[in-house]
Amino acid sequence: MVVRVVGRSQGHPVMSTVAVIYKRGLEYWINGVVPATLARLIAEGNSVQPGVNFLLEAVDPAAFLAQLQDAGIELTEKLDEGTP
């Protein structure tokens, strides 16, 4: 999964790219690790908003990504300055 965010910083165009990487052959694994990680955050009461929310509104994205990394998911981040 790759997410690209395009915007401006100090008047200059920038693009931030974040990729979620997991080992080949474990494609099915991501389907279980995400809800299991969310369930753990809810059970611990860690950075979770009450009520019905979209995922990134319900949990702190940084805490969620840190938990996914602890579970073995690799993240890469890249910031490109200039014309995206």
Short characterization:
By secondary structure, the chain is of the alpha+beta class. The chain has three helices and three strands; from the N terminus they run ββαααβ.
In terms of DSSP E residues, the strand content is 25-35%
How many beta-strand segments?
A: 3
Report mean pLDDT, rounded to a whole number.
79
Uncertain residue segments: none
> Helices and strands, in N-to-C order?
EEHHHE
Reading side by side through the largest sheet, how are the strands ordered?
A: 1-2-3
Euclidean distance between termini CA atoms: 19 Å
Q: What gross morphology would you assign? A: flat
- Helical content, roughly? 25-40%
Classification by helices and strands: alpha+beta
Q: Helical region count?
A: 3
What report would you give on this structure?
It is a single chain. With 84 residues, the chain is α+β, with helices and mostly antiparallel strands. The chain has one domain. The protein is 35% helix and 31% strand. The protein is built from three helices and three strands, in the order E-E-H-H-H-E. A hairpin with a 2-residue loop joins strand 1 and strand 2. The chain starts with a strand and ends with a strand.
